[in-house]
Amino acid sequence: MSRDIEDVALTAGAAIGALDAAVRRQERWAGAWRQRLALSAAAVTAKQVGRVEDESALRDAVLLTRPGDFLSVGPAGLLLLAWRRLAARPGDELLTEKNLAAVLEEFGYGPDDEAVSDLADDLRQLAAGAGMVARLTGTFMAAERHGFGRAVGAWLADALLAQRLGWAYAMPLLGAEAALGTSARPRRSTAGSVATSIETDPERAKGLLAAQARAALRAIDLSAELERRADRLLAVAPKLRAKAADAVVEKLLSDDAIVASENIAGMSDRGLRRLFDRLVELGAVRELSGRPAFRIYGL
Fold first, then answer.
1. Where do runs of H (alpha helix) occur along the chain?
2. Which of 195, 154, 209 is closest to 38 using CA atoms?
3. Helix residue ranges, H only, 107-201
4. Which domain of life is it from (predicted)?
5. pLDDT at 57
6. For residues 32 and 271, what is the distance between their CA atoms, to the nearest angstrom?
7. Which neighbouring-strand residues pair with 146?
8. How far apart are CA 77 and CA 59, in angstroms?
9. Contacting residues for 5 by C-beta, under 8 A, at least 6 apart
10. What pTM value is reported for the model?
11. What residues does 296 pair with on adjacent strands?
């Protein structure tokens, strides 16, 4: 490994180490943190595939769809579901063949049991023996070898990082990086093993490491912002008189946003709207949609 790559790897390692410390604090608002990162990753992914939906439109696509109505979220909404899956599923379930098949469908790929099985095998090899740089670059090459694009490579790299560090849940990091040091067009190869490209394409390896460092630092910045907002919410929580206020507070801490009409602990729509109005008045939450109806609230 060249000196240049070693320097970038050290920088990325330091950033990941700082992020690891933040993740291990297991803050009450960690769910909202992960889901906010997932939304950012989905917005960048949507733009990369030529879609026009921004974060607000993606949030609407998922939150304003009837629960369980998988197909009605549309192609862009499915991208958000893919990144939300990364943030919400236990880390040890992310790279099972069943979960890989589901997430690839959300990314828009047709069923291919053989490709999923081979991809799972490649990822197990990388998880078992590769170092930090080889694992990162090898993950993207594994995705491309089976015909999947860089968004899938980013998703898989985030999942492998979580497993390597023993995180209970993965942090959506690389999906929000517009420049990943990889080709935009996936390639198929008949090679039987996963190469790492460290020597054959050192600039690509450096680009991926730099992207991972940027993503980790951006996640840390977001954690500081959400910590301030969560502290404010928790400070005003004792003033709330609604019977299900505690359940609403926990929901706000665990997710990106809540629709004002959501069914929480049996609260009526009217009661929930009154509670959110009170929380906005106290400066504890924000209304995120900017609409007079179908309003959405979050930290």
1. 3-23, 30-48, 55-63, 74-88, 97-106, 113-129, 132-145, 150-165, 202-236, 245-254, 269-281
2. 154
3. 113-129, 132-145, 150-165
4. Bacteria
5. 95
6. 23
7. 188
8. 8
9. 133, 198, 202, 205, 206, 209
10. 0.91
11. 259
The pLDDT tens digits of the residues spanning 153-200 come to 999 999 999 999 999 999 999 999 976 654 434 444 434 444 445 555
User: Any idea which residue has 């990753």 for tokens?
Assistant: 41
> Rounded to an integer, what distance in angstroms lies between the CA atom of residue 121 and that of residue 117?
6
Q: Which helix (H) or strand (E) holds 286?
A: strand 286-287
Distance CA 197, CA 205 (A): 7
| Ranges in the chain, pLDDT < 70 | 1-3, 67-71, 179-200, 265
User: Which of the 8 DSSP states describes residue 110?
Assistant: P
Q: Which two tokens stand for residue 125?
A: 């090899």
Residue by residue, DSSP assigns 195-208 as: ---TTT-HHHHHHH
Tokens read off for 177? 């990086």
Contacts of 17 (CB under 8 A, 6+ apart): none
Amino acid, single-letter form, for residue 58: L
In 3D space, the residue among 271, 119, 45, 218 whose CA is nearest the CA of residue 58 turns out to be: 45
Residue type, 64: L
The C-alpha atoms of residue 163 and residue 92 are separated, in whole angstroms, by: 7
